[in-house]
Amino acid sequence: MVETLTPTLNRSWMIFFSTHKTLLTALFITFFFTVLYLQRDAGTGVLIFRREFSSRKLPKLRPVAYNLTDFGGVGDGVILNTAAFERAVMAISKLGKKGGGQLNVPPGNWVTAPFNLTSHMTLFLAEGAVVIGYDNEKYWPLMPPLPSYGYGREHPGPRYGSLIHGQNLKDVVITGHNGTIDGRGRTWWKKYRQKLLNHTRGPLVQIMWSSDIVISNITLRDSPFWTIHPYDCKNVTIRHLTILAPITGAPNTDGIDPDSCEDMVIEDCYISVGDDGVAIKSGWDQYGIAYGRPSKNILIRNLVVRSMVSAGISIGSEMSGGVSNVTVENLHVWNSRRAVRIKTAPGRGGYVRHITYRNLTFDNVRVGIVIKTDYNEHPDKEFDPKAVPVLEDINYISIHGERVRVPVRIHGSEDIPVRNVTFRDMSIGITYKKKHIFQCSFVEGRVVGSVFPAPCENLDLYDERGNLVKKSASHNISDIDYDF
Ligand SMILES: *[C@@H]1O[C@H](CO)[C@@H](O)[C@H](O)[C@H]1NC(C)=O
Ligand SMILES: *[C@@H]1O[C@H](CO)[C@@H](O)[C@H](O)[C@H]1NC(C)=O
Ligand SMILES: *[C@@H]1O[C@H](CO)[C@@H](O)[C@H](O)[C@H]1NC(C)=O
Ligand SMILES: *[C@@H]1O[C@H](CO)[C@@H](O)[C@H](O)[C@H]1NC(C)=O
Ligand SMILES: *[C@@H]1O[C@H](CO)[C@@H](O)[C@H](O)[C@H]1NC(C)=O
Ligand SMILES: *[C@@H]1O[C@H](CO)[C@@H](O)[C@H](O)[C@H]1NC(C)=O
Ligand SMILES: *[C@@H]1O[C@H](CO)[C@@H](O)[C@H](O)[C@H]1NC(C)=O
Ligand SMILES: *[C@@H]1O[C@H](CO)[C@@H](O)[C@H](O)[C@H]1NC(C)=O
Ligand SMILES: *[C@@H]1O[C@H](CO)[C@@H](O)[C@H](O)[C@H]1NC(C)=O
Ligand SMILES: *[C@@H]1O[C@H](CO)[C@@H](O)[C@H](O)[C@H]1NC(C)=O
């Protein structure tokens, strides 16, 4: 008995002990990881941040400041705050003559359907404040197509308005302590792909026919469509923004699209999106020509941009009202398909002129500098193919980079030649030591001083002092190879 009992006892004790040991170990591991998890959260998220959020005092930028909660706002990530935003905007609209009003959005998740801003208003997003676009299209009002597009852009007829919208305003500021506007784009991209939408998707922020606009120090993410769309505006400043969307599978999530705007600055932004980082536009074919409002006097500087689908900075393809006097400087484009692109087509009309790119850095970019003149995407068949755009006076100065496949592809055509292009001080590290990677056709212009890789033969060569070294044999040589 003893002999048999002891081992039995021993065994059961051992089983008892080992299960408890397992249990204790499991408990310990759970405890350990919980502590780790909480520690991690304390560093980046919930716990300690909550205290930091409320302790970071919000500046008072207008004579009157409201809190969204004053109007019944609830930041629980579920309740709709559309009415609270509308009541707040209504209250601020009465303060115009007294210097306007500020609406503070405290930390929390504030779901809302689209709402309109008013003049002399500052929307201030506290650290940890997330304004979330309600992703049910039934709550998104339809608006007429933009006059210079004559078309929703994706569908004829009306289009969805933007989540945060403004028309005919003056003196509007959207800023904060890096609070976020989240467009819940995933729902929209999916429905778009499945062709479930009957109207063009809405931008995240669209300000139309307005002046003196500032958008700064916030994060915008996952827009249903273009992220920021200033339309026919004057005096717009955009700075210190982070604009994010997945780099693939997020169709048309351009970062910032100045459209028929003048006197605009875009600076110190980080943009990584599913389409163009910035795309300067001015209307589409016959509608844009008739509307006739150019984009001009635009300064873009100190941007870091990533675009796997399109380009870091684009002009066009909708440019029918004309684009002129644009400077792009101190731009860093990384892991992207293209760095800077001008795109147009017969039918657009208009012009792109007086464009200067200075101090650009390309890092791991497939094609660096691109001009494309056959971007044949049209609103309808009524466009006039004889309305050819003029492309001229374009400067590329101090262009550097590494891991670039095709540094230059300027594809002018007989109908749309590219005139008066200047390259000065360029050195781009290339991934392939192949000829014809500096591709040109129907381009007239010059290379001044040292330019690497060797330029195409369409261009005249000048030395540093501006003396002609070698005149181009022909501007019309075509050496474009899209396979490469
Ligand atoms: C806004 O109201 C909430 C709730 O009353 C409060 O916790 C928060 O501190 C207020 N924030 C500001 C910026 O006034
Ligand atoms: C914003 O204002 C415009 C112009 O009045 C209007 O068409 C649109 O429906 C308004 N949007 C909302 C969400 O009220
Ligand atoms: C703002 O928030 C974004 C997204 O969380 C972050 O990537 C960025 O670094 C923040 N910017 C600043 C200045 O803290
Ligand atoms: C699109 O139109 C179809 C047919 O009129 C309709 O059944 C469907 O509900 C509409 N979808 C949306 C998202 O409005
Ligand atoms: C441009 O807008 C800013 C911000 O509202 C304002 O301070 C400035 O005076 C405006 N500039 C001009 C020339 O109107
Ligand atoms: C805006 O962001 C920049 C860069 O992060 C920072 O230097 C500046 O102080 C911020 N402005 C405000 C009002 O927080
Ligand atoms: C070109 O745009 C800049 C702003 O980027 C402006 O200062 C300048 O006056 C403009 N030049 C002309 C000729 O309009
Ligand atoms: C060129 O741009 C980079 C940012 O891409 C910046 O760090 C550098 O200071 C700029 N150089 C000049 C001379 O402005
Ligand atoms: C070429 O463009 C530059 C500006 O980029 C301008 O100063 C110059 O006058 C233009 N030359 C011709 C011949 O049009
Ligand atoms: C080059 O093409 C243009 C049309 O784009 C034409 O006007 C010009 O005469 C051509 N030049 C040569 C040398 O073939």
UniProtKB/TrEMBL annotation:
Gene3D superfamilies: Single-stranded right-handed beta-helix, Pectin lyase-like. Keywords: Glycosidase, Hydrolase, Membrane, Transmembrane, Transmembrane helix. GO terms for molecular function: hydrolase activity, hydrolyzing O-glycosyl compounds. The chain crosses the membrane at residues 12-38. Belongs to the glycosyl hydrolase 28 family. Pfam families: Glyco_hydro_28. This is Polygalacturonase. The lineage of its organism: Eukaryota, Viridiplantae, Streptophyta, Embryophyta, Tracheophyta.
